[in-house]
Amino acid sequence: MSTDQPIASAVLAVPKHQRRAIFIDVDGTYAYRSRVPEAHAQAVRTARANGHLVFLSTGRPPSMLSDHMLAAGFDGLVASAGAYVRLDDAVLTNRTLEQSLAQRITTVLDHHGVCYLLESPETLFIPDHARPRLLAIAEQDSPELKAQLLKVSASRPDPWSKACVFDSAVSMQCLLDEIGPELDSVANSVSSTGRHSGELFARGLSKADGMELVLEQLDIAVEQSIAIGDGHNDIEMLALAGTAVAIDGAPASLLAHADLTVPNPEGLGLARAFDSLGLTETA
Predict the structure, then answer these.
(1) 64 domain residue, yes or no
(2) Whose CA is closest to 254, among 272, 269, 240?
(3) Environment class of residue 30 by beta-carbon count within 10 Å: exposed (0-12), middle (13-18) or buried (19+)?
(4) Cα separation, 83 vs 221, whole angstroms
(5) Residues spanned by the domain of 49
(6) Residue 194 in 3-state DSSP?
(7) pTM, full prediction
C-alpha cells in the first residue's frame, strides 16, 4: 500500500484454524511521534474483520495510550514491556515492582536529579523537579505526547511497574549499578532527547512473556503468531514469533530475527506488512 487511504470495505474471513495473532509495537512501528497513519488503523480494522486477532505490544503503560492510538480497535494489549496483559476486557496479569525496590529506584533517580516518569496501568507521575524538562522534551517529540503529560496526576502511583528516564546526567548503567541487579534497561521508545535516557523495568521481563500468555489463553500456536517492531525491547517478541517483521533501520540485533522488513510509519510500513502477509485480503 503506497498511500494513506482507507482499504476496501469488502473482507475475506479466514477459517478459525488459519487466523493469525498479530502483536504490534507502537512507537516507531504503528505510530510516529504518537500519531497513527490512517492506513495503519485501516489495516488493523480489515485484518480483524478477516478473522485475525490484533494486539498492541508496547513499552508504554495503558495510561499512556491515547484514544487516538486505540481508535482502530484491538483484541487486547501487552503493555509496560510485558508487565501488563489484557485480553479483551480481562486483565491476565499486572506485575508491579516491590515497594522496597520502587523506593530504591526513586531515591537514586532523585539523588541524581534525573528527569523521569513513573508508570502504572492507571496513571503516570512526574516529580515536580522533572516536570519543566520533561514537558520541554515532550514538546520536541509531539504535541500529542505533551498534551498527555500535561494531564499527569500529581499523586505518586503505588504500586507502579516501570520508570521511564528522559534525561539523566549519569548513564543508565550507572543508575542500574546503584539501584541493584533486579532491574534491566532498554532505550527509551517514546523519546531519546535527553543526555542519557532509557526505561527501567524488572529484569527478565519482556513483551514475549505477555505474547506467550495471550497465545496460551487463546490456544493459538506460536507458529500462527506475527510480531512487528523496531526497537531493542522488541527482540524477544520477534525471536518468539512464527513470523517476525522488523522496521527498516532497526538495530542489527532485531533485524537478525526478521523474516520481513518494511518501512517506518512515515512509509506506511505496517500496512505494507499486513498486505504482504495476506492479512488484508479483500473479497
Answers:
(1) yes
(2) 240
(3) buried
(4) 22
(5) 16-95+205-276
(6) coil
(7) 0.89
Q: Which helix (H) or strand (E) holds 252?
A: helix 252-255
| Residues 211 and 91 both lie in one domain | yes
Q: What is the pLDDT along the chain (283 residues), one digit of tens a residue?
A: 333 333 344 556 777 768 999 999 999 999 998 899 999 999 999 999 999 999 999 999 999 999 999 999 999 999 999 999 999 999 999 999 999 999 999 999 999 999 999 999 999 999 999 999 988 888 887 777 788 888 787 788 889 999 999 999 999 999 999 999 999 998 876 665 667 899 999 999 999 999 999 999 999 999 999 999 999 999 999 999 999 999 999 999 999 999 999 999 999 999 999 999 999 987 6
- CATH number for the domain harbouring residue 103: 3.30.1240.10
Specify burial of residue 264 (Cβ count, 10 A radius: 0-12, 13-18, 19+).
Answer: middle
Cell digits of residue 161: 511497574
